[in-house]
Amino acid sequence: MTIPLSSAPWRSAAGFLATLALGLVILFGAPRTLDTFGLVQWTGFAALAMFGLSQGFIWGFAGVMSFGQAAFLGLGGYAYAVSVINIGDSTVPVLLAIAVPMLFAAILGYFMFYGRISDAYIGVITLTVSVILFQLVNATSGSQYRIGTAELGGFNGIPAIPALNAPGFPDEPLDNEGIWYAAMGALVLVYVLLRAVLASRFGRVVVAIRENETRAQLIGYDPRLYKLLAFMIAAGVAGLAGCLYANWGGFISPTVFGLSMSAQVIIYVLVGGLGTLVGPMLGAVLIQALIIAAGSQSLLDSNLGLGLVLDGFVLLVPQGLVPVIRTLGLRLLQRRAPRPGPADGAAGLATERAR
Amino acid sequence: MSAALPPTGLGGAPLRPLIEARGVTMRFGGVTAVAGVDFTLGEVELRCLIGPNGAGKSTFFKILTGQLKPTEGRIALRDTDITGAEPHAIARLGVGIKTQVPNVFNGLSVRENVFVAAGRRKSLARTRAIVDETLTRLSLTGIADRMVGQLAHGQRQWVEIATVLAQEPELILLDEPAAGMTHEEVHRTAALIREINRTHALIVVEHDMPFIRMIAKTVTVFNQGRILVEDSVDAVLADRRVRDVYLGKQAG
């Protein structure tokens, strides 16, 4: 029975189903086991896990080093907040939270990719753009800065953002449990969609371009277009994460655009595993849990602690958690049911997607 | 030899050539890598390019595939002017290249490499058929699920040739296809090139003279960015000037 286990497609499908099952268990199990405080906390984890997915996709699979993914998180959050205050019903605002960052990414990405900006400068430009947005939104204090009835509020941000509601019932906002189902359900859905994208021909070309842009070009693919589309997809996911983030606390401020947000999401991906989708989600939950734990003690400065954790990972587990766990798990399976010539499953796994 | 004659073709090629390059020049700063090259290739023709290191062969290939934009000159693929076109656009017109340093997708399996090359604008069933056919043709079926990054140099060369064939080009450029291959692999490569040439035009850059003898009909010799001589393989290899440039004595 171990033959299929060592074949890459089977392993990939098994990983997908296991993750999906775990996601569904958490989705329906959490409201039954956690108290309200815990559930709200986990809603925040789900929003940030979605943000991790966005970074994991664009960096790990498209090979585009976006250092300012927080720009799209913030744009999504603000797009939702401003439009839901104006419209009332949350259906269109949710769509705007996805569409606005995607449109912004389309324009920014067009100039970066079609302008043949090198990889390092793409990092610099995305970082700079997120800082510019931070400064811009930060400077909007005062009642003259308003979009419709929504005051932007400068550094203080926008308080009392109306929560999601079932489409067509703006007067019945979802309670904490409802928002949990929306956030976690969206996370599971986006994970499935990204897996589908990666399994599609488009996704394979995106990964191929990451592996060798010259070869992709020489067989007739235009890397600029594929990178642009991948960048837009990642921006849409980050935007939805921003929408959930705004729903989580009912509040949004310019810190969502901040450097620490962009840095944190990179840490999620590094800790969880670059080149996987599960890793960044896992990384998000672990790091956020750690930050909360660090905040409740006063022995060590929490930022210092976070830095130590990151250094530890880069030095000791540079691949990230998920690839390491996967390799260990596979080795155990092979040891338990030894077969003559266990193929090169484990060897293949060590380099699989890990770059 | 490189006079701008109307292409009558060697071996009865049609009147309109597959590739027609006129006065192609490439300068990098003060260095002229390719200097006013006129080059014509007929349909289903096999041409070998030889010449010492730095003669401009690979640069000429990069110009043909759009990786470099020539400083001067024009290149036509059949009726289409491809001078300065993007590499992906030239590839879509039916030009495939195996580069000197293998360009493969290291983190993907052999099968995935070929799949990505075969799959542009084709149905999934058709793509799979091409993938299976190509893997069988190049005897890669046994290592189809291996990561390309883990393969030996010779095998990586074959994978790259497989990706080039899978994209179903009409003109195939091979830059040193036999480099790093064992004796047996070289023979297989030569047999493969002859087989491909039954239906496709090829330009092959090689240094390996026995290999050239195995496959060549017409040979073009590059030296210092210019075409030194263009003739049948026997005439070229007997040519004193060719031997001189290979021995480092510069003719003229």
TrEMBL record, chain A:
<dbReference type="GO" id="GO:0005886">
    <property type="term" value="C:plasma membrane"/>
</dbReference>
<keyword id="KW-1003">Cell membrane</keyword>
<dbReference type="Pfam" id="PF02653">
    <property type="entry name" value="BPD_transp_2"/>
</dbReference>
<keyword id="KW-1133">Transmembrane helix</keyword>
<feature type="transmembrane region" description="Helical">
    <location>
        <begin position="70"/>
        <end position="88"/>
    </location>
</feature>
<dbReference type="InterPro" id="IPR043428">
    <property type="entry name" value="LivM-like"/>
</dbReference>
<feature type="transmembrane region" description="Helical">
    <location>
        <begin position="39"/>
        <end position="58"/>
    </location>
</feature>
<feature type="transmembrane region" description="Helical">
    <location>
        <begin position="94"/>
        <end position="113"/>
    </location>
</feature>
<dbReference type="GO" id="GO:0015658">
    <property type="term" value="F:branched-chain amino acid transmembrane transporter activity"/>
</dbReference>
<keyword id="KW-0472">Membrane</keyword>
<feature type="transmembrane region" description="Helical">
    <location>
        <begin position="179"/>
        <end position="198"/>
    </location>
</feature>
<keyword id="KW-0812">Transmembrane</keyword>
<dbReference type="InterPro" id="IPR001851">
    <property type="entry name" value="ABC_transp_permease"/>
</dbReference>
<protein>
    <submittedName>
        <fullName>Urea ABC transporter</fullName>
    </submittedName>
</protein>
<feature type="transmembrane region" description="Helical">
    <location>
        <begin position="225"/>
        <end position="248"/>
    </location>
</feature>
<feature type="transmembrane region" description="Helical">
    <location>
        <begin position="120"/>
        <end position="137"/>
    </location>
</feature>
Automatic annotation (TrEMBL), chain B:
<keyword id="KW-0067">ATP-binding</keyword>
<keyword id="KW-0547">Nucleotide-binding</keyword>
<keyword id="KW-0813">Transport</keyword>
<dbReference type="Pfam" id="PF00005">
    <property type="entry name" value="ABC_tran"/>
</dbReference>
<dbReference type="GO" id="GO:0016887">
    <property type="term" value="F:ATP hydrolysis activity"/>
</dbReference>
<dbReference type="InterPro" id="IPR003439">
    <property type="entry name" value="ABC_transporter-like_ATP-bd"/>
</dbReference>
<dbReference type="InterPro" id="IPR051120">
    <property type="entry name" value="ABC_AA/LPS_Transport"/>
</dbReference>
<dbReference type="InterPro" id="IPR003593">
    <property type="entry name" value="AAA+_ATPase"/>
</dbReference>
<dbReference type="GO" id="GO:0005886">
    <property type="term" value="C:plasma membrane"/>
</dbReference>
<feature type="domain" description="ABC transporter">
    <location>
        <begin position="19"/>
        <end position="249"/>
    </location>
</feature>
<dbReference type="GO" id="GO:0005524">
    <property type="term" value="F:ATP binding"/>
</dbReference>
<dbReference type="InterPro" id="IPR027417">
    <property type="entry name" value="P-loop_NTPase"/>
</dbReference>
<protein>
    <submittedName>
        <fullName>Urea ABC transporter</fullName>
    </submittedName>
</protein>
